[in-house]
Amino acid sequence: MVDQDVTKCRRRGYSGLVSALVRIRAVAPSLRPAQRRVAEAVLRDPAGTAELPIGRLAQRCDTSAATVMRFCRSAGFQGYPELRLALARETGREAAVEGPELSPDIDRDDSLADIVAKIAFSDAAAVQDTAATLDLDALAAAVDAVATARRVDVYGIGASGFVGQDLHQKLHRIGLLAFAWPDPHAALTSAALLDAGCVAIGISHTGATLDTVDALRAARLAAQSRLLNLRGRWQ
Q1: Which residues contact 133 (CB under 8 A, 6 or more apart)?
Q2: Which among 19, 68, 80 has a CA at the least distance from the CA of 39?
């Protein structure tokens, strides 16, 4: 059933291909400062960047051509020519779509209507980016693992803890035995008691929250439990 759903999604266009701007937005926070400046320049003016030679972009970002090349590889491109081609293709598609271009940043002078429009735009973009970056085979494997698990334990710290509690409630409503552990010490205790028939789910926006990673590592060491890491960045 899951395999059939994956096939249907691919026919509808969710092929797993990730757009250039989605890639760059996702990796930008984890880049070194010089590469992050390149990412910010590309995101600020993708159409203009597509027309720049690598030396001009490096000069504009106060860095070297080698750093621009490293940025390209960090974002999943083989080199600068591939990045320019992807940006030109993507900005060409966006230019063909009617409607005003909105910034996700809320300014002090924005009206209430502007704020509502920006939030709606950002939320819609987040959903579209998620659909574009999903690995459908990995998603199918995760669904099968959760559906057949004897027990599902969910780990999330801080704001991710609220997401974990929401997931716990939804799993409970469909009849699955699930627990949410927003406290890192309780999460470690839970992880130590899991076995191979259990699934441990870690929720982290960065994918690298230490307390969450420690709980997943403990679950793996305890009894080779199946692990799922839900995060907010494409990599």
Answers
A1: 16, 18, 22, 26, 234
A2: 68
pTM of this structure: 0.68
One-letter amino acid of 139? L
Which of 234, 158, 221, 172 has the alpha carbon at shortest distance from 193? 221
For 71, how many CA atoms within 13 A lie in the half-sphere containing its CB?
Answer: 33
pLDDT by residue for the chain (235 residues), tens digit each? 545 554 444 444 443 346 888 889 888 888 999 999 999 999 999 999 999 999 999 999 999 999 999 999 999 999 999 999 999 988 876 554 545 556 667 888 989 999 999 899 888 878 887 787 778 898 999 999 999 999 999 999 999 999 999 999 999 999 999 999 999 999 999 999 999 899 999 999 877 889 999 999 999 988 766 677 666 554 4
Question: Which positions ≥6 away from 225 have C-beta within 8 Å?
Answer: 191, 194, 195, 196, 198, 199, 200, 219
